[in-house]
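ok here's the first one, seq then struct tokens
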Amino acid sequence: MASGTSAAPAYTAIRAVGGDFVNCSNQGISGVTSDGGYAEVMIADQHALAAVPDELTATEAAPLVCAGLTTYNALRNSPARAGDLVAVQGIGGLGHLGIQFARAMGFRVVAIARGSDKAVFARQFGAHRYIDSQKEEPAAALRTLGGAKVILATAASGRAMSPLIGGLLPGGRMVVVGVGGDSIDIPGPELVLASRSVQGALTGSAIDGEDTLSFSVLGNVSPMTETVPLALAAAAYARMMRGEARFRMVLVTDR
């Protein structure tokens, strides 16, 4: 760093939110505010590094400090406790890891998605029950099961999230990690009359990443990945954006 003045904005922003780096409005991001990203070699800030357990390959670890970190932190910081009913909406890049983490944490896990074809994935990842939103109304199905303490909303669709609120227990919480372009519409009575809440959750710090990796080893949580050579990064990205990945695209090099 050539001048100490360039660090001031980031420092000020971090101080403004009480040291919460993840929600800093002016944080440094590799590949965005500094060089790095899709490359065989890069320079990284030491404060952003996480130790990878020997039991994990690089291909396994990569999604775990992205989608894994997001879902793991959201669940462990939620009000759910072992034995509680936790629903995971969406079985994709986030959801397939969310289901595994929820099962490993000792929750009763319900997976919610569209189509009967997703049932096999729900069982594979450890869900105790699968709700096909094309065949049954998810909130009603959750109430039949006793109501969810937490709903982890991973599919990027506000329209799909909105009807789920009624499936929460009184005092239950929907934790949103899937970012869609539309709004989440919630009738006031659904929140107020049962003391329910909706909360957003965003990734975590470097130490949270280490915790995620360590817990993944303990809980036998593993991402389903497709590997693509670095030279085909653009094609892999396009495949991901079309929703065709099962369930995370990982770029690999010859090294």
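and now the second one, same deal
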Amino acid sequence: MATLDPAGEFLRISEHYRRMSDSELLVLIPQSSQLTSLAQQALASEVRSRGLKPETEEAPVPPMPERRPVFYGHHSANSADSSVHDSSALDSQDDGLAGDQDSSDERDSSYDEDRKLVELCTVWSLRDALQVQTLLDQAGIPFFMGPERATGVDTVTSSFVNGVSVQIMRIGLPWAAQAMQYYTPADEPARKPEEEPAELVVRCPQCNSAEVVFEGGTSSLVFAGDDSSQKYRWSCDSCGCQWEDDGIAKEE
């Protein structure tokens, strides 16, 4: 039987413990010696993150006073005193349950960020998709391909010609980055070289010669910081023409 990658196994166990309640973890702590080393590390990490302190000694339970059964909130006149204690005990119990629910909600919200799907890469062919799937499977990292969120290449319905996005949970990025070091895509589309803008040639407005000389710019400005009135002086070596413009060459 093939063993999972330690990083992937640790990730899976950590996610399992994160879904457990505080009481479930406290019950599991005394049995940690029977767990694997990876499970012990994951359990200890989750216990520390929640600030749980296992109880080594059980406090003595005080004897409970005799309580009469309560049906739908109705009490007899003879049990008026006990009904006061019963309602306060129930309120206290409800408060405890509400507190546990609040802490559970806070944990869930803190894990939402880790569970968010982020794009790992885009594959452009079946063989590249299979290569990514093999690497992530070996690392034990779950993934989703395409908008249909396929968990395997054989269930992808999107066209690889248009590119298929591969997503994983954010928490798995460190392990995925290690696995993807060995990814060598074979079918990524070639990037088009960026075209350099064509250089515009300044020409003489009189003889259309390109043998012009820049004489400098006018120094007078109408408003400070406003160069709309800035002019540039030119001269033509061919015909001797001199002129001024705003420095913007225009294509003929």
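notes on #2: The longest strand covers residues 117-123. The helical segments are 6-18, 22-28, 37-50, 80-115, 126-139, 173-179.
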